[in-house]
Write a structure and sequence with these properties.
By secondary structure, the chain is an all-alpha fold. It has two domains: about 60-210, Cytochrome c-like domain (Cytochrome Bc1 Complex, Chain D, domain 2), CATH 1.10.760.10; about 215-360, Cytochrome c-like domain (Cytochrome Bc1 Complex, Chain D, domain 2, Orthogonal Bundle), CATH 1.10.760. Helices cover about 35% and strands about 5% of the residues.
C-alpha cells in the first residue's frame, strides 16, 4: 500500500511539473506570443482598426521570423538579393533613389518599388475595392488582394528574386536556424509557402509610421511653421486640392472608397488596374499611395518618372493630360481652374515634409537583424 501510494505521488508530481510555467513565465504549450498592432486613439485621430486575417494572427515570433526572411538573400535564386535590397528602411522601405529596381541577374523591374509603411490598413475596404468577387489592393495595379498574396510573386518573379518556391522551401528546411524559427512562429518545423508569406506579412504589418511632425502637431506637441501651415491649407483647399486623392484619411494620407485613380500622366496611359481586371474603364488607374515619408521615397509615380517633389508639383500645376482616359474628375476640375501658384507649390512641399517620420526610418525593430 505504501509503495503504491509513493508511486502515485511521484506520478502526480511529474505531471504537475509538466503543466507548470516555463522560466519565461508562459506555459510551455501556450504557443506564439500575440501582438496588438492597433494604435492608441488618443492624439491619433482617424486611425482605423487594422484588419488582421483570422488565419494569420500577429505574434512576436511571426514578426521576428518575417524580419529575418525580409532581410535574408536566401530568398533569391542566386543568394544575392533580399526584399530589403529594394525596400530600404532609410527610404521608408522604398528603393529611393532608384527609378526601377535591379532584380536577380540585373534585370530591371516594371514599377517603382513601393514604400511599405502602414500597409496593414490597406488590404480591406475602404482602402481596397472588390470587382467581380476579386479584391484589388496591393501593388500599383492592385493585382494582389492581401499582404500574404503580395509576398508570393516577388520571390518567383524573374525580374525580382527569381527563386522557384520549391527550391526556396528546400533551402529553408536545410538551414540550421529556420526550422526552429518556423516552429516557434507556427507550431511546426515543416516549412511551407503559406507560412513563409504569412511571416513576411506579419513583419510588414508591424511597419507602422505615426511619429512625424504632422503627428506631433495633432497631439499638441509641436506647431507648424508659417510655410507648413500655408501648405496644409493649400493641400486641403481649392488651390492644390491634393486631399481628394491623398486626404480622405488624414492618418494614412490615402483615399477612402476610391483607392485607385488616373492622375493624367499620359494621354495613352499604362494599363494600371485594367491589367488584372480587363476593364477598359480602369485603364490608367493606379494605387493612390500614402504620402507618409514622401520626402524620402522618390523617385515618384508608378514608373518613377519624377525625381523630386518640385517636379511632381509642377506636373500637377501645368502638365496633367486632360485627354487621358478615365482621368480623375476632381483632378480635372482642379487643372481647369488654373496653375498652382509657385509659392503655394513651395508651401505644399514644406507641409509634405512634415510627414517624414525619423523614428520609423531608424527604428531598430525594423532594421537588418543580421548586422
Amino acid at each position: 500500500m505504501l509503495r503504491g501510494f509513493l508511486v502515485l505521488l511521484l506520478l502526480l508530481l511529474v505531471a504537475g511539473a509538466g503543466c507548470g510555467k516555463s522560466k519565461s513565465g508562459s506555459s510551455d504549450d501556450e504557443g506564439p506570443t500575440p501582438v496588438d498592432l492597433d494604435l492608441p486613439r488618443e492624439g491619433l485621430a482617424n486611425w482605423p482598426e487594422m484588419p488582421i486575417p483570422a488565419d494569420n494572427p500577429t505574434t512576436e515570433e511571426g514578426i521576428a521570423l518575417g524580419r529575418h526572411l525580409f532581410y535574408d538573400p536566401i530568398l533569391s535564386g542566386d543568394d544575392t538579393l533580399s526584399c530589403a535590397s529594394c525596400h530600404r528602411q532609410e527610404a521608408a522601405f522604398s528603393d529611393g533613389p532608384n527609378r526601377l529596381s535591379n532584380g536577380s541577374g540585373g534585370a530591371l523591374g516594371s514599377f517603382n518599388a513601393n514604400a511599405l509603411a502602414n500597409l496593414g490598413w490597406l488590404s480591406a475596404r475602404p482602402f481596397a475595392i472588390e470587382v467581380a468577387g476579386q479584391t484589388l489592393s496591393m501593388f500599383w495595379d492592385g493585382r494582389a488582394e492581401s499582404l500574404e498574396a503580395q509576398a508570393i510573386e516577388p520571390v518567383q518573379n524573374a525580374t525580382e528574386l527569381d527563386q522557384p518556391w520549391p527550391l526556396l522551401l528546400q533551402e529553408l528546411a536545410a538551414h540550421p536556424e529556420y526550422p526552429a524559427r518556423f516552429e516557434a512562429a507556427f507550431g511546426s518545423r515543416e516549412i511551407t509557402q503559406q507560412h513563409v508569406v504569412q511571416a513576411l506579412a506579419q513583419f510588414q504589418r508591424s511597419l507602422r509610421s505615426f511619429d512625424s511632425k504632422w503627428d506631433r502637431v495633432q497631439r499638441g506637441e509641436d506647431v507648424f511653421t508659417d510655410a507648413e501651415a500655408r501648405g496644409f491649407d493649400a493641400f486641403t483647399g481649392e488651390v492644390g486640392d491634393c486631399w481628394h486623392c491623398h486626404g480622405g484619411n488624414l492618418a494614412l494620407f490615402v483615399n477612402q472608397g476610391t483607392p485607385f485613380a488616373n492622375n493624367g500622366l499620359d494621354s495613352s496611359p499604362d494599363p494600371g488596374l485594367m491589367g488584372p481586371t480587363g476593364r477598359a474603364d480602369f485603364e490608367g488607374l493606379f494605387r493612390v499611395m500614402s504620402l507618409r515619408n514622401i520626402e524620402v521615397t522618390g523617385p515618384y509615380m508608378h514608373d518613377g518618372r519624377f525625381e523630386t517633389l518640385e517636379e511632381v508639383l509642377a506636373f500637377y500645376s501645368d502638365d496633367v493630360a486632360l485627354d487621358s482616359p478615365n482621368l480623375d474628375s476632381n483632378l480635372r476640375t482642379r487643372v481647369i481652374a488654373g496653375p498652382i501658384p509657385a509659392q503655394a507649390q513651395a508651401d505644399i512641399i514644406a507641409f509634405l515634409k512634415t510627414l517624414t517620420d525619423q523614428t520609423f526610418l531608424t527604428e531598430e525593430a525594423f532594421s537588418d537583424p543580421f548586422r
